[in-house]
Design a protein that fits this description.
With 414 residues, the chain is of the alpha/beta class. 32% of the residues lie in helices and 21% in strands. The strands form 4 sheets. It has an 8-stranded mixed barrel, surrounded by 5 helices. Strands 2-6-4-5-3 form a 5-stranded mixed sheet, with helices on one face. A 3-stranded antiparallel sheet has the order 12-11-13. Helix 14 (381-389) links the parallel strand 17 (373-377) and strand 18. The longest helix has 17 residues, at 277-293. It starts with a strand and ends in an 18-residue tail after the last strand.
């Protein structure tokens, strides 16, 4: 999933350096803002590029070596954030950049432009159109080793993507070591089937296993591994944003901690109980450890596709909804989401939630989602407009552009 963030309607219609995006923005990012020379190997296309046809600078050494030893670079605070200017002349390569990120982007552009031991003589001016340029990897449904994630980081960096969102928890398995609750990885990091579709939909097995059980599929990342991955990504100009799902998509949580299910429910439950104070202690403990691993200003707390059926039968949920004067127990999700967002704010962090958080009401017929919530829209553009009109940052991630979908007829395309 490719993502980007927007701050307001004007920037949605006429994107600039503000926050914005989607998988469709991947297309926008690859195109220049105005008609100009198009250079196929440059992705994304720079804002301005002028190439002298047929004139080249012959590289005396490998480009990587030259960028380290012979590149003439200087800071230029007048440029936009992450911006840079490249001049390749017969006398050498010079770069002006706003900051370290701008210099990194300039180096990336030069490495894409070089071919056959030479660089075309050119003048390039560029700055990101979007401050948030993201990709999400779901490691819960499909677990990948750290080596795979590092390879993805290398690729993302090459295309100037600056956010990697890790979907660390979901019914498919709990993927992050939490020292206070080792049962999460001991009981819910492995499952009976590697194929997510067969495990969840076809066979409806939906059972978890211990690591040493025959046929167990899964795994998790230790805190040391994740801290090392965060540092590796930072060196490539990428911030890792963790996602801890709540209250829905939590089958693995209730399997490991059945006490977090609703009162009287002895069967499977995909949503944690929002009326139990133990639920809030549990997630606050987890988020403390998550924040210790990830310095990202943003922490994703899910909020999508909660079934809420168990809540409607739970005496405790019914009682709490009545105390809060809510229209129904369904609105207890708003109570949970806002409490967790407020908790993150105490530590100087901001929450991100999927667009379902927009429907939460703590007051009858009045939206009351806190302003420290950023909304990730995956269902439709109407939610993006609503969120921006209500003052929220918006990250567009249209479901139809998820990269695990077929591009067209699966008989002919990947």
């Amino acid at each position: 999933m490719i993502t980007c963030m927007k701050r307001n309607i004007a920037k949605l219609i006429r994107p600039r350096l503000g926050k914005a995006v989607t998988a469709i923005s991947a297309i926008l990012l690859a195109l220049p803002a105005s008609p100009q020379q198009f250079v196929p190997q440059l992705l994304p296309q720079p804002a301005k590029i002028e190439i002298k046809k047929g004139e080249y600078l012959r590289l005396r050494h490998p480009l990587d070596s030259m960028l380290t030893t012979e590149l003439h670079s200087s800071p230029d605070p007048s440029l936009p954030q992450e911006g840079y200017v490249i001049d390749v002349t017969a006398g050498g390569i010079s770069v002006r950049s706003h900051d370290a990120s701008g210099l990194r982007h300039a180096r990336t552009t030069l490495s894409q432009l070089a071919a056959d031991g030479r660089l075309p003589l050119c003048h390039i001016e560029d700055a990101p159109r979007y401050a948030w340029r993201g990709c999400m990897i779901d490691v819960s449904r499909h677990f990948f080793p750290v080596s795979f994630l590092k390879k993805q980081i290398d690729i993302l960096s090459r295309y100037k993507i600056n956010i990697l969102q890790l979907h660390l928890t979901d019914a498919g398995g709990w993927r992050i070591q939490i020292r206070r609750y080792p049962e999460l990885t001991r009981k819910a990091a492995w499952r009976t089937e590697s194929d997510w579709g067969r495990w969840w939909d076809s066979g409806k097995d939906r059972q978890y296993m211990s690591e040493d059980a025959p046929g167990a599929y899964g795994g998790y990342y230790t805190q040391a591994e994740l801290k090392e991955l965060v540092a590796y990504a930072a060196g490539k100009g990428i911030t890792i944003v963790p996602e801890i799902e709540m209250p829905g998509h939590s089958n693995e949580v209730t399997a490991a901690f059945p006490g977090l299910k609703c009162e009287g429910n002895h069967g499977a439950q995909g949503d944690v109980c929002p009326s139990d104070e133990e639920t809030y202690r549990f997630y606050c403990d987890i988020l403390r450890e998550v924040m210790d691993i990830f310095p990202s200003h943003y922490i994703h707390i899910g909020g999508d596709e909660a079934g809420k059926e168990a809540w409607r039968k739970c005496p405790r949920c019914i009682h709490l909804a009545g105390q809060l004067r809510l229209a129904s127990t369904d609105d207890l999700q708003g109570f949970l989401i806002q409490r967790m967002a407020a908790f993150l704010k105490l530590f100087g962090r901001e929450a991100i939630g999927w667009d379902e958080v927009l429907t939460d009401k703590l007051v009858r017929s009045e939206p009351s989602l806190g302003t420290n919530m950023n909304v990730m829209v995956w269902r439709d553009g109407k939610a993006a407009r609503e969120a921006m009109l209500r003052g929220h940052n918006v990250i567009l991630t249209p479901g139809e552009y998820y990269l695990d979908r077929y591009q067209d007829d699966p008989r002919f395309v990947p």
